[in-house]
Design a protein that fits this description.
Elements: H1 2-11, H2 23-59, H3 66-90, H4 98-114, E1 126-128, H5 137-154, E2 161-164, H6 166-174, H7 178-188, H8 194-210, H9 215-228, E3 238-244, E4 260-264, H10 269-278, H11 283-291, E5 301-307, E6 313-318, E7 329-336, H12 340-344, E8 350-355, E9 361-366, E10 372-376, E11 382-386, H13 389-392, H14 399-416, E12 420-426, E13 432-439, E14 480-481, E15 497-498
Helix pairs in contact: 2-3, 3-4, 7-8, 8-10
């Protein structure tokens, strides 16, 4: 056999080069190519969905503006770029690289059309909130446009206020070369771990905090402040809120990532304005934009300045159940004092479930044992105080107020054409005030049945935790890492579960 093997090796030399089959290596390659192909299909699905939305908008009777066109174009542009990238990753010979050139060529043709907006020199630096609606998203951002629409289109009570517009933002970013310096520092960053990201974030935010506001913007803001005063001696404080032009979109909500500053004195309003603009460069916001393919220059930050509501109670109202996916339930969460406690999720709160049809009816109440509340400080800012014993187990809102909020949630959903997430407060006159309304992302209804493992088998391990209420659907496994303060994120290990 040795002699025959030598003859075959001499006559058929390719037999000498025959490699040993590496089963594990082949599985790894196949898994990688499968994941790339799956991402390609996902990107394609997003593009087709956005194109379908545009087609329906063109055929329908509902008005839409350039904000809709820009947001859908951003989704399509991001999806097409990702599809081209994954297609090239799948093809080892680079035969699809020319698609990048064609993509850039098309984008260069589209960009001037999308940016053909009002001359920056003519655009208002400040707009009164009562005069804005959805048509003004490009100037006041999504959050403030929706709030103005709630007052004008729905007749809901909202705070008095004004918006520092996108024109003011652009003027501030261009002033003294701030925009160029921000871009230079971002481009000079060499990447790295979380600590490097936080160093870059701190550097960019501090640069904005230290920057000077243009005189024209400062004058416009001070004039708007005086317009809010009922009298020169009236004490006035403001809630200062982010309102990004691309904020609160379904595919990129930026929920909780931009800053809000409560109970701000007029003297410190421009400082609060800069803090909110700076929050555009928080580590989470930068990562969020990067992971969704959104360009930094598209994240234009407008700022809403509202008369502060010193709330007796506050919270959020969901026009549909966001977690369980049950279509006929309205969920209202409330707490004593400012709604900050509910929005931040820092404590147990009261929960009311309202059935939508055949008529609004409260079908479930959970009155929490509440221990704290947030209130406005007499001078400026907010502080936490302990609740009196008599308030701890008392409902923070009445049944009448629950039903009023439920009607408002239904009306907002009908007006906007999709489920809504509304933040609200009740003032000392027992009047409901809407603080914001944005699209609500609904989870699919959970599947019932026993837990299963990744290979499809029923999990028979002991139950460690049962009950409670889920806040974000999904499945994950890994060591638990508890975060008690923001800085703990720097020690967050890879592949851990954040609590």
């Amino acid at each position: 056999m040795g002699f025959i093997s030598k003859i075959l090796s001499h006559r058929f030399p390719w037999r000498r080069r025959q490699r040993v089959f590496d089963a594990e290596g082949e599985r790894t390659v196949l898994r990688l190519r499968y994941n790339r192909f799956k991402r390609l299909l996902n990107a394609n699905d997003k593009v087709l969905a956005a194109m379908t939305e545009i087609e329906f908008a063109l055929k329908g009777s509902r008005l839409f503006g350039m904000d809709f066109v820009r947001s859908r174009t951003t989704v399509i542009s991001t999806g097409v770029y990702q599809a081209v990238k994954y297609l090239n990753d799948l093809a080892d010979d680079g035969k699809f690289k020319l698609l990048f050139d064609k993509f850039d060529e098309i984008r260069q043709k589209i960009t001037p059309v999308l940016n053909n907006s009002q001359n920056a020199a003519e655009a208002p630096l400040v707009l009164t909130l009562s005069n804005v609606g959805r048509k003004d998203i490009d100037q006041v951002g999504v959050k403030m446009a929706n709030l103005g629409e709630a007052a004008r289109g729905l007749g809901m009570g909202i705070p008095e206020g004004f918006v520092i517009t996108s024109a003011s933002y652009q003027a501030f970013m261009e002033h003294n070369g701030l925009k160029r310096e921000l871009e230079r520092r971002r481009q000079a960053d060499e990447g790295g771990g979380l600590d490097a990201l936080y160093r870059l974030s701190s550097s960019l935010q501090q640069l904005i905090i230290d920057a000077q506001v243009p005189e024209a913007v400062s004058n416009a803001v001070h004039e708007a402040i005086e317009g809010l005063r009922a009298s020169p001696t009236e004490p006035l404080t403001l809630a200062v809120r982010s309102s990004g032009v691309s904020e609160d979109l379904k595919e990129a909500s930026f929920a909780g990532q931009y800053r809000s500053v409560l109970n701000v004195s007029p003297e410190n309003l421009l400082r609060a304005f800069k803090e909110i603009v700076a929050s555009k460069y928080s580590a989470t916001a930068m990562s969020y934009r990067f992971n969704r393919g959104l360009r930094d220059e598209d994240a234009v930050m407008c700022v809403g300045c509202l008369k502060m509501v010193d709330a007796v109670a506050g919270g959020v109202a969901y026009s549909r159940d966001p977690v369980e996916g049950r279509g006929e339930m309205i969920i209202i969460n409330s707490a004593w004092g400012l709604p900050k406690l509910v929005v931040d999720g820092r404590s147990d709160v009261d929960r009311f479930v309202v059935l939508r049809s055949p008529e609004l009816k409260i079908i479930h109440r959970e009155i929490a044992h509440k221990t704290i509340k947030y209130t406005c400080h007499s001078a400026e800012g907010v502080f936490r105080e302990d609740l009196a014993e008599g308030e701890r187990l008392k409902p923070s809102i009445t049944d009448t107020q629950v039903l009023t909020l439920a009607r408002a949630a239904v009306a907002a959903e009908t007006h906007y054409g999709e489920a809504q997430d509304m933040e609200w407060a009740i003032n000392h006159d027992n009047r409901v005030v809407i603080l914001q309304s944005r699209p609500l992302r609904l989870a699919a209804a959970p599947e019932k049945g026993p837990a299963v493992s990744s290979d499809g088998g029923v999990v028979k391990a002991p139950v460690l935790l049962q009950g409670g209420r889920g806040v974000s659907a999904g499945v994950a496994a890994g060591p638990v890492h508890i975060l008690k303060k923001d800085v703990d994120i720097l020690r967050f290990p890879q592949k851990a579960v954040m609590v």
